[in-house]
Design goal:
The complex is a heterodimer of chains A (279) and B (307).
Chain A: H1 2-29, H2 36-52, H3 57-81, H4 87-112, E1 126-129, E2 132-135, H5 136-157, H6 160-170, H7 172-177, H8 182-207, H9 215-228, H10 234-255, H11 257-275
Antiparallel strand pairs in A: 1-2
Chain B: H1 2-23, H2 27-52, H3 60-76, H4 82-106, H5 112-131, H6 133-136, E1 142-143, H7 147-150, H8 155-180, H9 184-194, H10 196-201, H11 206-232, E2 234-235, H12 242-255, H13 261-277, H14 285-306
Antiparallel strand pairs in B: 1-2
Helix pairs in contact in B: 1-8, 2-8, 2-11, 2-12, 2-13, 3-4, 3-5, 3-11, 4-11, 8-11, 8-13, 9-11, 12-13, 12-14
Classes of the chains: A mainly alpha (279), B mainly alpha (307).
């Protein structure tokens, strides 16, 4: 049971890391990035392939993160391309084009690594806490997720970049009039979102094998978290991520994976209503 | 005059395909016709709801799949005759599409939020099929009783009938949409998609026009799903996924000019060629569709920027 709670909390923090990126990119670049889950998968797959080829761990991890930055650059290219279109069509075109990007990456990964399950699992080590046995990799993933979330929080609240991101997120026109280079901030935000998604992927690989085809599922889960968090609310997204991670782990244990997935999809649809009307 | 020439061209094109379908004994060609009819019907559904009504509906595969699965399951497990199972399938597929659009209207969702709602519906459809393996046989797929073969037709004659029916469905839907293009329904649907508040201000219900369009588009998708299921004699959830059904449908609509019912017929031909050319790479064909979607919609956004 403790394993379940630790995994749930860890999954929730990782989901929050991915979903915050989706929320912030949607708020600043105006594009709902359906290729976001691919940033997660690409980082894990790249690192795991490099490790299997004998690359040192730090090199594999850094190149894994670089690969998710490449996905971020592609998303940035899409968002720049649709930026001149009217606001309403921009959202729709961004949605369809990032879906195209997601499928391009998904198809390429499935073609290149058809039957693979990639994992960065550090071994079957177990530790004892207050008489209960817990997997070491779960604890490590939880600690790393918490540290990464804290780093993201600091980045967004205690740096000039973070202030500019929040200003652009809340009121783009006002931020521009106060001298914030919103275009540059949007580019850096998209890259930051992909980097944190990649980090989440590397942490995820410590506890569960990541299949190259899981990108869309991760995108949908982070979309659910983003919707549950209010779609334009970073703190709400983090809380929603933790809650959904915990609920997901517990329900999957009690009801099975498919029923849990259905319940999450239904909850997302209902939350879409609660979040409010509009484009 | 131009409209009449286009109509004549489509009639000639569809008649040529229909005649070829009637004359050929090639199973491969007949299967190609049914695949063409399936994808083009979904492309026409996208043309109506997205191209004209501006609604991002990304679950036409699930609508076609619902229709096919309901008809097949009620035949296999409940022992219903095709004369009951087929209307039941059509009703459930069409009902799903209308229900989703009604839900979106009553929740006042627009643009990408309708897209999110319909993507969730599409994923829920897949989860229901995969989560009930004892009934649906999951990824393995479900065998479908062919009512034409049960009535005594040979397998090739049955396949030919489905190919012709599919071509008639797409050609007549395309011509019907072309005829109403520019008319009152078309203009009000365009307005309902672009500025629903303006219609409300003029005491016109945008939801009514959107639901009518959803009913027509979903009926088309549901019919094509049924024809596909009966012609192949087997259905699996992989046929009705976002990647295999909805993305090709958006490609067809975009290649046809978004909002052009006759263009969608030609878009279907290009998609079929793309599908056949990428058959050798298997699952990687999804990457080709994705790339094509990116390229086609890049061109579309360039046009909109100039506009």
């Amino acid at each position: 049971m403790l394993d379940l709670l630790i995994d749930g909390l860890s999954n929730g923090l990782q989901l929050a890391l991915i979903a915050v990126g989706m929320t912030v990119v949607h708020g600043i670049a105006g594009v709902l990035n359906l290729a976001h889950g691919e940033s997660v998968v690409v980082a894990t797959v790249t690192a795991a392939v490099l490790l299997s080829l004998g690359a040192p761990l730090p090199v594999a991890l850094i190149l894994g993160l670089c690969s998710s930055l490449l996905v971020g650059l592609a998303v940035w290219a899409v968002s720049s391309y649709v930026s001149g279109v009217g606001e309403r069509m921009r959202g729709v075109l961004g949605l369809v084009m990032t879906l195209g990007l997601a499928l391009t990456i998904h198809g390429s990964l499935v073609y290149l690594f058809p039957t693979a399950h990639y994992s960065l699992v550090v071994g079957p080590l177990q530790v004892e806490i207050m008489g209960l046995v817990v997997r070491f990799s779960s604890l490590l993933a939880l600690a790393l997720s918490a540290v990464t979330i804290a780093a993201l929080h600091l980045l967004l609240t205690a740096t000039q970049f973070g202030r500019s991101v929040r200003a652009s997120f809340q009121n783009r026109e006002l931020a521009e009039s106060l001298g914030v280079d919103v275009g540059r901030i949007a580019l850096l935000t998209v890259l930051m979102a992909s980097l944190f998604a990649g980090l989440s992927g590397l942490i995820r690989g410590l506890t569960v094998p990541v299949e190259p085809s899981r990108g869309m599922e991760l995108t949908v889960l982070s979309l659910v978290v983003s919707v549950a968090g209010g779609m334009r609310n970073v703190a709400g997204t983090v809380l929603a991520g933790i809650a959904i991670g915990l609920v997901n782990s517990l329900l999957a244990y009690l009801m099975g994976t498919y029923l849990t997935y259905l319940a999450i999809l239904l909850a997302a649809a209902l939350l879409l209503r609660a979040v409010g009307a509009g484009d | 005059m131009r409209s009449q020439s286009l109509q004549a061209l489509v009639l000639a094109f569809s008649s040529a395909l229909g005649a070829a379908a009637v004359l050929t004994d090639s199973v491969y060609l007949l299967r190609l016709y049914t695949v063409y009819a399936f994808h083009t019907s979904l492309g026409l559904a996208v043309t109506l709801l997205f191209g004209v009504g501006n609604q991002v509906v990304i679950c036409f595969g699930a609508i076609a799949g619902t229709s096919a699965y309901v008809a097949a399951l009620t035949q296999v497990h409940a022992g219903l005759s095709p004369s009951v199972a087929v209307p039941l399938g059509l009703l459930s597929g069409t009902g799903l599409g209308v229900a989703l659009i009604r839900l979106a209207s009553s929740w006042d969702l627009r643009g990408i939020r309708v897209g999110i709602l319909t993507i969730l519906a599409s994923l829920a459809f897949e989860a229901v099929i995969l989560g009930n393996r004892s009934v649906t046989f999951g990824e393995v797929g479900l065998p479908v009783d062919d009512p034409l073969q049960s009535a005594g037709l040979s397998p090739i004659a049955s396949l030919r009938t489905y190919a012709v029916l599919g071509l008639v469905l797409t050609a007549s839907a395309s011509l019907l949409l072309h005829r109403v293009r520019g008319g009152r329904f078309w203009l009000l649907l365009t307005a309902a998609g672009q500025d629903p508040d303006l219609l409300k201000a003029n005491a016109i219900s945008p939801a009514r026009y959107m639901e009518l369009a959803a009913a027509a588009a979903s009926f088309l998708a549901a019919s094509s799903g049924l024809l596909y299921a009966f012609s192949t004699g087997y259905i699996s959830p992989s046929t009705f996924t976002l990647a295999e059904s909805d993305i090709p449908a958006y490609l067809i609509a975009a290649m046809g000019g978004l909002g052009s019912p006759l263009g969608a017929l030609l878009g279907g031909v290009v998609l079929l060629a793309l599908k056949e050319l990428t058959r050798a790479v298997g699952a990687a064909s999804v990457a080709v569709y994705g790339l094509a979607l990116l390229l086609v919609f890049s061109a579309r956004s360039r046009t909109l920027r100039r506009g």
